[in-house]
Design brief:
heterodimer; A: about 190 residues; alpha/beta; Rossmann fold; 8 strands; B: alpha/beta; about 40% helix; globular
């Protein structure tokens, strides 16, 4: 599936879920109108999206938290799979956009591209559920069941290679920290 | 064998726990540190703050940010090598994103008979200069009389909305 297809499906089903988004999913998430409310971009921190999401999930067990991660990003802090599994937040949903590439730096291949199995890794780490989805129609069909499952859940979204220059949202993270903190404090 | 007088002297873990409780810390995000093993053991006995053992200091800074955003009052407990290892994440999250990041870092391999700038171990000798390069305030814990360093670093982190570090100069007792 295309990244934008997956983004659009996730945006339509979000319904108040707090979002943490990184790298090449940031601009499409903003394009889909999801960057203003209950949201933070994880920028310039090389793999920290899942850790930020874990912190929010632990702080606010009453709110679902979704992280839109990249496979290259997650490899940079791969231990976070184990940390998340150990903390076992029931409200954390980890979507990994998997194209096997470091898209932001020019589509260089990841180590073990085509060999690495995200669902097996997440399951072995101790995630409660891990599922691989290749088509947007399957994502539409499976999302209600995913949201109804206690986390941590990892969803590997197999996406197509994209060409062209990387896109950046350009929204300073510091302002998002303040806004999201205030939003969460309000309820 | 050396007869040199120690420059740094141990601080009782119980006294540090008392400082942490006074600050209202809710979570201690920890990558284990040899110098603070008595403190980590004591913290592990407590329900509050909750101790979270994580894999890397990069993760710790992200989790710290998420907990802070979610209304909690976290701190990090790591070692000097962990600060060196996580500078980029500190830059992005604590400095650029302006997240209060209260860090307590053990000076692993510190020779307690010498001041930090005379240390043979590079990770020890260069910790303070590294923090200075990045504009990160730090406070030395060289003995029981420095116990106020915890409150100083905590308040500095929250006032500046950035990182501040307590450097634990010798193993806690």
């Amino acid at each position: 599936m295309e990244r934008q297809e997956a983004i659009d499906v996730l945006a339509r089903s979000r319904e108040g879920v707090v979002s943490v988004v990184t790298m090449q999913s940031v601009a499409p998430w903003h394009d889909a109108g999801q960057g203003e409310i209950d949201h933070i971009d994880a920028t310039q921190c090389m793999g920290s999206a899942s850790s930020i999401a874990l912190g929010i999930a632990l702080a606010r067990p009453d709110r679902k938290v979704m992280v839109l991660d990249g496979d290259g990003s997650l490899l940079m802090q791969l231990g976070s799979l184990v940390t998340i599994a150990g903390a076992a937040p029931a409200n954390l949903y980890h979507f990994v956009f998997a194209n096997g590439l470091h898209q932001s730096t020019g589509n260089q291949p990841l180590p073990a591209q085509g060999v690495l199995d995200w669902c097996a890794m997440a399951s072995a780490a101790g995630y409660r559920k891990a599922v691989r989805i290749e088509e947007a129609e399957d994502l539409i069909e499976q999302l209600p069941g995913i949201w109804a499952t206690d986390g941590p859940v990892l969803v590997e979204l197999v996406i197509a290679r994209e060409e062209g220059e990387p896109r950046w949202a350009g929204v300073p993270m510091a302002g998002q920290v303040v806004a999201l903190k205030e939003r969460l404090a309000a309820g | 064998m050396t007869n040199a007088e120690p420059v740094a002297r141990p601080v009782d873990a119980e006294a540090i726990v008392a400082e942490i409780l006074k600050l209202g810390i809710t979570h201690v995000i920890c990558v284990p540190d040899t110098f603070q093993k008595t403190l980590i053991a004591r913290l592990a006995e407590l329900e509050v703050p909750r101790t979270l053992i994580v894999c890397t200091e990069d993760e710790a800074m992200g989790i710290n940010a998420g907990l802070y955003i979610g209304g909690q009052n976290p701190m990090m407990l790591i070692q000097n090598n962990g600060i060196h290892a996580s500078i980029n994440t500190m830059k992005a999250i604590a400095l650029d994103a302006k997240v209060p990041t209260f860090i307590v870092a053990g000076q692993f391999l510190r020779d307690a008979t010498k001041p930090p700038e005379e240390q043979r171990a590079r990770a020890v000798r260069l910790l303070e200069p590294t923090l200075e390069v990045w504009g990160v305030p730090y406070f030395r814990l060289e003995g029981p009389e420095d116990i106020g360093a915890f409150a100083q670093a905590y308040h500095r982190a929250h006032e500046d909305k950035g990182p501040a570090v307590v450097i634990v100069g010798t193993p806690t007792s």
